[in-house]
Known about the structure:
Blueprint: E1 9-11, E2 14-17, E3 20-22, H1 48-73, H2 79-105, H3 113-128
Antiparallel strand pairs: 1-2, 2-3
Helix pairs in contact: 1-2, 2-3
Region (Disordered): 1-50
Amino acid sequence: MGRHPGLITRTSGTWAGPGGLRGSPPPRSAEPPLRPPAPAAPPRPDPPALGLRAAAAFDQRAQALLAEELRAQDPAHDERTARVAAAQLLAVRLTLVGGNHRRMLAGERAAALPAALDEARRAFAAVEHRLGDYCAAPA
Length: 139
């Protein structure tokens, strides 16, 4: 037998192992040798196109619902004006949300809330007052 119990070794044409001397080597397994498991792949996010489609569907539904509500409140029940107003209001909201996300990612916290509120008031006031002479060509 070899020097270490449980270790299979070859000694002068015979194999020695825990069971004593044998005339042939231990049988080879048909399975490949054990390897450590491969690290699990991180979960894949949704494909960008799927996310964009989902967001677009949400935006369209939100715009349709808002337009319907605005049309119901409009004495003239003007559908086209309601759709345009809904698109403008949602565009302002989207712009404000994007600005808030950028500020948060840059590390700003609750201390920036008054500035964000002021920005929102100014943005919605601009829509309410039809942007006035914003970007109008000089006379």
